């Protein structure tokens, strides 16, 4: 019984006295009634009632705490057959003691061309699954990795994730695969765009271990802080240090699905299975618990804007941008106008108006056509 119910019970005898007094016409009964009502109300307002209320909330807490504890330790979902196939086709190499997942497919005979794919936040190399096979028909080798903290790679915590470290991961992978002296084509998306710009900077500065670029194709990345609009949860996680541990643990599939769905077009939404595969990749190795650390890349973009945008505007590497114009994170026309104004050596493909932040998933055919036209243009 709750304290409120207890108070209602205490008042019942007074009401019965009132009825009895009226039936006999007795003034004394009415006086007793008033006394009973006053006593009951005093009891409801007494420290005893407050104590009962406090005890009730303690009981609620004792029931809820185990439920919350169970919820926060729900094991990650099982891999779907499609995601399991992707995982089984990959390998790992070690970077500074951490396991990095990658895929390396040999494709077109008679070609020596290599393409490396860099995924975005908060997903993984599986973002490229819809264009993987067509790329293997054009390139000799098609390579993609899961950055540290993403997908099937290790997700250490605590750890200071940075764009610089991710660029070093890519360089280490290229060396591991024996491609240090090979000219490579990079295709990047979102978070991967910024990693690509750091790699471009190192290449143009002739840094030790740098990649040798043949071309760079960017897509829907927040390369300009002034035209980049992160989602609310991203802002909370990157700036609220005391809230971040709670928010990362409370992030669930429903919240994730809503957030990811907002950056897809209304006619190009992922299927339920595709949403679930994205969520599974995030939850693998407790990836939800490192989101706040990884999201420091937004602050890094602002801090190192001159370095990365400068590399983009000064390079002589062939450049292309594939852009989904319905992107709320890098909105049209502000983003693409600034890009065309600052990066005048780059060519640009603007996809159909209903394509949003994930063009390689929303319009794989349009993405491939744009990319192949670019590759064949130089």
From TrEMBL:
It holds the Pfam family Abhydrolase_1. It is found in: Endoplasmic reticulum membrane. One of its GO terms (molecular function) is monoacylglycerol lipase activity. It is a multi-pass membrane protein. Belongs to the AB hydrolase superfamily. Keywords: Endoplasmic reticulum, Hydrolase, Membrane, Transmembrane, Transmembrane helix. Its main location: endoplasmic reticulum. GO terms for biological process: acylglycerol catabolic process. PANTHER family: HYDROLASE, PUTATIVE (AFU_ORTHOLOGUE AFUA_2G14860)-RELATED, MONOACYLGLYCEROL LIPASE. This is Mesoderm-specific transcript homolog protein. Residues 114-364 form the AB hydrolase-1 domain. It comes from the Eukaryota. InterPro entries: AB_hydrolase_1, AB_hydrolase_fold, AB_hydrolase_sf, Epox_hydrolase-like. One of its GO terms (cellular component) is endoplasmic reticulum membrane. Gene3D superfamilies: alpha/beta hydrolase (3.40.50.1820).
């Amino acid at each position: 019984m709750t304290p409120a119910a207890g108070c209602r019970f205490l008042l019942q005898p007074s009401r019965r006295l009132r009825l009895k007094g009226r039936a006999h016409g007795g003034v004394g009964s009415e006086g007793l009634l008033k006394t009973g009502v006053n006593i009951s109300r005093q009891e409801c307002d007494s420290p005893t009632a407050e104590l009962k209320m406090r005890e009730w909330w303690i009981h609620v807490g004792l029931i809820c705490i185990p439920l919350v504890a169970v919820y926060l330790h729900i094991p990650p979902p099982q891999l779907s057959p499609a995601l399991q196939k992707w995982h089984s086709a990959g390998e790992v190499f070690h970077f500074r003691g951490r396991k990095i997942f990658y895929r390396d497919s040999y494709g077109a005979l008679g070609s020596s061309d290599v393409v490396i794919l860099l995924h975005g936040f908060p997903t993984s190399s599986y973002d490229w699954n819809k264009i993987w096979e067509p790329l293997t028909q054009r390139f000799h080798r098609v390579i993609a990795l899961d950055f540290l903290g993403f997908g099937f790679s290790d997700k250490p915590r605590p750890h200071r994730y940075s764009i610089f470290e991710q660029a070093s991961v890519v360089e280490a992978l290229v060396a591991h695969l024996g491609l240090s002296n090979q000219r490579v084509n990079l295709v990047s998306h979102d978070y991967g765009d910024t990693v690509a710009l750091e790699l471009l900077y190192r290449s143009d500065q002739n840094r030790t271990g740098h990649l040798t670029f043949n071309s760079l194709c960017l897509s829907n990345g927040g390369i300009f802080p002034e035209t980049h609009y992160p989602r609310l949860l991203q802002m909370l996680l990157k700036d609220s240090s005391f809230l971040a541990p709670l928010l990362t643990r409370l992030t669930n599939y429903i919240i994730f699905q809503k957030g990811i769905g907002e950056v897809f077009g209304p006619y190009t939404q992922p299927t339920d299975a595709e949403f679930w595969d994205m969520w599974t990749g995030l939850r693998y190795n407790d990836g939800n618990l490192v989101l706040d650390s990884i999201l420091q890349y937004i602050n890094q973009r602002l801090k190192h804007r001159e370095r990365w945008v400068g590399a983009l505007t000064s390079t002589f590497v062939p450049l292309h941008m594939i852009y989904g114009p319905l992107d709320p994170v890098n909105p049209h026309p502000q983003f693409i106008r600034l890009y065309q104004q600052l990066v005048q050596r780059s060519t640009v493909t603007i996809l159909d108006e209903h394509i949003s932040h994930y063009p390689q998933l929303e319009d794989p055919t349009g993405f491939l056509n744009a990319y192949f036209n670019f590759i064949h243009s130089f």
